[in-house]
Amino acid sequence: MTTTPTGTTTDRIALAFAAAREAGRTPVIPFIPAGWPEIDATADIVEAAVAGGAAAVEIGLPFSDPMGDGPTNQRAYEEAIANGATPETVFEAVRELRARGVSVPLIVMGYFNPLLAYGISRFVQTAVEAGVDGLITVDLPPQEAGELEQVAREAGLHLVYLLAPTSTEDRIRLVDEHGSGFVYCVGVVGITGARSVLSDELPEYIARVRALTDLPLAVGFGISTREHVQRVGEVADAAVIGSAFVQLVGETPREERPARVRAYLEEITGRDPG
Amino acid sequence: MTPEPPTSDPNAPDALGHWGEFGGQYVPETLMPALAELEAEYERARQDPAFLAELDGLLKDYVGRPSPLTHVARLSAEVGAKVYLKREDLNHTGAHKINAVLAQALLARRMGKRRIIAETGAGQHGVATATACALFDLECVVYMGAEDVRRQSLNVFKMKTLGAEVVAVNSGSRTLKDATNEAIRDWVTNVRDTYYIIGSVVGPHPYPMMVRDFQSIIGREAKQQLFEKEGRLPTIAVACVGGGSNAIGLFHEFIPDQVRLIGVEAAGEGLEGRHAATISKGRPGVLHGSRSYLLQDQWGQIQEAHSISAGLDYPGVGPEHAHLKLTERAEYRAITDDEALEAFQALSRLEGIIPALESSHAIAQVLKLKGEVSPDDIILVNLSGRGDKDMNTVAQALGVSL
């Protein structure tokens, strides 16, 4: 986290979470795969989501074998790859968004192999130069992330790790020690995908994590409604909307997307459309 | 939290499951506690005389171990060296898979997990898993690519007969890699009461080490049997490599010895066309929980493998093989579909043994050693499975309608 000499942070993630809190809202972070539904669709979708009140956005780096994802994201990734999506697609979207003046945190989420194939140093450097704030790698737990962690730390890129309801104290401490920006708390024992009810374990689980780290806690996996966001907001610091948002985008014709994406975010964040 | 390496084994991975740069635990965080629990339970079990005695009893009385070591005279004459086959084809369920499956089913029972999941390509590992689940009265769900379900209907019916549920996987290429993704997704979702029986020396630590340990009985028996017959070590040990469990099972015992080790990958239609020669043509990467060689495009997307042998049709390979390749302790060759088909017929006619198409790749490699070997050399081949399951595929490839 970057801190100015006066002690005020210039870190986009910390600022975004604080701003939403100040406005009395739970920060909401939608997720969208890059290069999907069309190869050049990403910047418009993200911009609309931000206009609707998204506190940050996760942009998915498509992978052929996403073992942590449910059918909605799997299909989107497959189609994105068929569209020709690569890490360049992610970086181009981020550059475009920064050029348009979008200032919320942009976080890349994906799997390790595409990153490895691109080259760890090159990936981190290109990401930071494009304006990426953080990186979430689903299949890269802290004990395997040594090389990436060193490079990311030097470049000022946050490495956001995941925790799960099954996580033991050891694992929570490890993520606290190695992670930065926030912790992505997987809300369910399972893969991504919209669910009708949130886990009853959530408050106890989040409390268990909270006791062992000062990092902000975002909850994701299975969150799809305004009520879910509010319940997450009672215990955690941010809510991630993945498959439900992906589903909405997939169902909406391109020309209607900006308005519908914005309206959806306004509704789910509880933000006044004014 | 870092445990000591498990044994004094010279080829043991480090405490986090790495052989050099390969191996490791590249999995979603949800699974990390389950892997730690498995590792701890495996450590206890391998030192527990009761566990080992029960496993030995099952391997002897249920599987039929030790499997014979057969000197094949006519094949030997053809090659110009003494060839011995380690007869894993004679195991119950027809292949080496059962060795590691029974051991893992015992582990699952010890851990109180009553639900078993597995992935399968051709169905051999699925049948072995369904068999063990019937024996131990465990719930069994097998994930199989929809394409493989169609191609291997006999094995699907076998699994169902044994009481397993077979789930056809329609994502991705609808083959083994996609079945593996789906099995991992199930495990992530049901990890608290489910044990995942992985079929090869792949996946996150401790699987590659554990499955190797359970399969290493192949090489241990063969070494002793060969000493009894010949009084010496083999010159060369040969085995086919898909994920690589039968090859590691054979090699492990001989790694400290002066024995040439040859792993045989599937060259499919040829190394410039569609193939499954991961070590020969792949690049290091991360898939299904570990770092190893992979068939992938320039962007790190996993490519589909191809082999006439469904058991070798996988775009990854066990991390220990990657390490044996990099350190040049083992060499890896590739055999095409056509060469494997010829070897399938050759062994059938010369020795009255119909090999699995997987094992036919190893036989083909032995035939290729002709001229390179001398009559004094001993070639030990792992005949990892029998060919019954492949008769339809071979008939089709030879243009015979059944």
Features:
heterodimer, A: 274 residues, alpha/beta, 9-stranded parallel beta sheet, 12 helices, 46% helix, B: 402 residues, 6-stranded mixed beta sheet, 4-stranded parallel beta sheet, 14 strands, 42% helix, globular
Number of domain modules of chain A: 1
Please give the largest β-sheet of chain B.
Answer: 6 strands, mixed
| Strand residues, percent of chain B | 15-25%
Radius of gyration of chain A, in Å, reads 17 Å
Low-confidence stretches of chain B: 1-6
Which parts of chain A are unreliable, with pLDDT below 50 for 5 consecutive residues or more?
A: 1-5
Shape, principal axes of CA atoms of chain A: globular
Q: Spell out the helices and strands of chain B N to C.
A: EEHHEHEHEHEHHEHEHHEHEHEEHEHHEH
Fraction of helical residues of chain B: 40-55%
Our Rg estimate of chain B from Cα atoms comes to 19 Å
CATH architecture of chain A: Alpha-Beta Barrel
Mean pLDDT of chain A: 94
How far apart the termini of chain A lie comes to: 32 Å
The largest β sheet of chain A comes out as: 9 strands, parallel
- Fourth-level CATH superfamily of chain A: Aldolase class I
Count the beta strands of chain B.
14
User: What's the helix count of chain A?
Assistant: 12
What are the SSEs and their pairings?
The complex is a heterodimer of chains A (274) and B (402).
Chain A: H1 12-22, E1 28-33, H2 42-51, E2 57-60, H3 71-82, H4 87-99, E3 106-110, H5 112-118, H6 120-130, E4 134-137, H7 146-155, E5 158-160, E6 162-163, H8 169-178, E7 183-186, H9 202-210, E8 217-220, H10 226-235, E9 238-241, H11 243-251, H12 257-269
Parallel strand pairs in A: 1-2, 1-9, 2-3, 3-4, 4-5, 6-7, 7-8, 8-9
Chain B: E1 18-19, E2 22-23, H1 32-46, H2 49-63, E3 69-71, H3 73-79, E4 82-87, H4 97-110, E5 115-120, H5 124-136, E6 139-145, H6 146-151, H7 153-161, E7 165-169, H8 176-190, E8 194-196, H9 207-215, H10 217-230, E9 236-240, H11 245-251, E10 260-268, H12 278-281, E11 283-287, E12 290-294, H13 319-326, E13 330-336, H14 337-351, H15 357-368, E14 378-383, H16 391-397
Parallel strand pairs in B: 4-14, 5-6, 5-8, 6-7, 9-10, 9-14, 10-13
Antiparallel strand pairs in B: 1-2, 3-4, 11-12
Helix pairs in contact in B: 2-4, 4-5, 4-9, 5-7, 9-11, 10-11, 14-15
